[in-house]
């Protein structure tokens, strides 16, 4: 073992992408193992690697961690991205949960039937502009600080940045009515670790294409 965290998932975004984002933002290098067949996935289950028979799987600090939320909480705590006290942690948790709800819609979008794609895209746009982004616009405006919680870079900032870029891929002008979020996006993009992650050749995965969707359906077929 190199000592680097080892990530096991498919060669695409899915539930692992937020984990990649958080590790990258913390300046942590990691290794990846890609699942390409159902046999690889079944072997992980048979060998007892997947506690609930689900990936993502992250091997870190001698643990084989599953469940995205648990993995993210551990990484955030380990690398000082989880607030200074319980109140800050509660705020970060609330923001992250909200962003996760929006990201779930984006995650499922590539698997939409062709006749539902337009409707689902409208739903993403509507939720982003009316329910989720206004919350963060208001928070940043009210406290006038660079970051969402405690004027310190945290997990919540990383996840919001990921969500902004993911929505913009589908709805390019989505931030037009959110000046605070536009400034936030620019500041985040220029943070050294995030700037590096946004460069070509980084571990960041491209938007899911048909090949990724096919691989997901093949690996996880019942």
Q: Give helix % range.
A: 40-55%
Biggest beta sheet summary: 4 strands, mixed
Which segments are poorly predicted (pLDDT under 50) over 5 or more consecutive residues? none
- Total discrete domains: 2
How many helices? The count is 9
Structural features, described:
With 222 residues, the chain is an alpha+beta fold. The chain folds into two domains: 6-79 and 198-211, Glutaredoxin (3-Layer(aba) Sandwich), CATH 3.40.30.10; 86-191, Glutathione S-transferase Yfyf (Class Pi), Chain A, domain 2 (Up-down Bundle). The protein contains nine helices and four strands; from the N terminus they run βαβαββααααααα. The chain has helices at 17-25, 38-46, 68-78, 86-108, 117-143, 155-170, 179-189, 192-197, 210-219; strands at residues 6-9, 31-34, 57-60, 63-66. Strand 1 (6-9), helix 1 and strand 2 form a beta-alpha-beta unit. Helix 1 packs across helix 6, helix 4 (86-108) packs parallel to helix 6 and helix 6 (155-170) packs across helix 7. The model has no long low-confidence stretch (mean pLDDT 94).
Question: What descriptors fit this protein?
Answer:
2 domains, Glutaredoxin, globular, 4-stranded mixed sheet, Glutathione S-transferase Yfyf (Class Pi), Chain A, domain 2, 222 residues
């Amino acid at each position: 073992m190199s000592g680097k965290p080892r990530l096991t998932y498919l060669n695409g975004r899915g539930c692992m992408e937020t984990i990649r984002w958080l590790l990258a933002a913390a300046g942590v290098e990691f290794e990846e193992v890609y699942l390409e067949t159902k046999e690889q996935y079944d072997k992980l289950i048979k060998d007892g690697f997947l506690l609930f028979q689900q990936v993502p799987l992250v091997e870190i600090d001698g643990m084989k961690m599953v469940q995205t939320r648990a993995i993210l909480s551990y990484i955030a705590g380990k690398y000082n991205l989880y607030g200074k006290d319980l109140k800050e942690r509660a705020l970060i948790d609330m923001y992250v949960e909200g962003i996760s709800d929006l990201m779930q819609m984006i995650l499922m979008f590539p698997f939409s039937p062709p006749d539902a794609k337009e409707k689902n895209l409208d739903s993403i746009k509507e939720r982003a502009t009316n329910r989720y982004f206004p919350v963060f616009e208001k928070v940043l405006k009210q406290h006038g600080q660079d970051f969402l919680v405690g004027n310190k870079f945290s997990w919540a900032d990383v996840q919001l940045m990921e969500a902004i870029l993911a929505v913009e891929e589908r709805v390019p002008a989505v931030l037009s009515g959110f000046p605070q979020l536009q400034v936030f996006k620019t500041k985040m993009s220029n943070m050294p670790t995030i700037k590096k992650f946004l460069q070509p050749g980084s571990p960041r995965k491209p938007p899911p294409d048909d090949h990724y969707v096919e691989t997901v359906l093949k690996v996880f077929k019942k």
